[in-house]
Specification:
Strand content: under 5%
Helix content: 55-70%
Oligomer: single chain
Radius of gyration: 21 Å
Number of strands: 2
Strand order of the largest sheet: 1-2
Largest sheet: 2 strands, antiparallel
Low-confidence stretches: 89-102
């Protein structure tokens, strides 16, 4: 890290590497997001240190995926920041009873077939929720998938 940075910058970068949250990091460092943005725009070394801190945070998320009890949130964050590594067709969250298994799908995965297989193992309560025509759009199934037999 460059030597000519203000004292708060180390606090900011450390918190950013830990949480990945710019607002929380700025608050912890006692500065505004505007102050962070101004320094980032005027100091190439600080801008690079921000990227390093963000990469550290994302690397931490990535390395924790196999042991995570909640991989879906981690995958969503990684997909937002590292989309090239987390294409939808290549990652399948295999949610088990304790929600802690992640499976990387083989090339040529048929996503619709996979979803049909998952639905075949769905509980009656899950099926009822997914089939509810009054549910918000993310919970409604397309008509061609609704009638999957267990």
């Amino acid at each position: 890290m460059p030597d000519d940075l203000p004292p708060w910058s180390l606090v900011y970068l450390t918190k950013l590497a830990e949480t990945g949250a710019p607002m929380l990091s700025a608050s912890t460092a006692g500065v505004s997001r505007r102050a962070v943005r101004q320094l980032q725009e005027s100091h190439a070394g600080f801008a690079e240190a921000i990227e390093d801190s963000r990469d550290h945070y994302l690397d931490t998320l990535e390395t924790g995926l196999p042991d995570s009890k909640a991989p879906i949130g981690r995958i969503a964050r990684l997909k937002a920041d590292r989309a090239n590594r987390y294409e939808t067709a290549l990652i399948v969250a295999n949610v088990t009873n304790n929600h802690n298994s992640l499976t990387v799908a083989p090339a040529g995965l048929d996503p619709v077939g996979f979803l049909r297989a998952c639905l075949a193992d769905a509980t009656p309560a899950t099926r009822a929720l997914l089939a509810d025509r009054d549910a918000p759009p993310p919970l409604r199934l397309p008509a061609e998938i609704e009638d999957v037999e267990p």
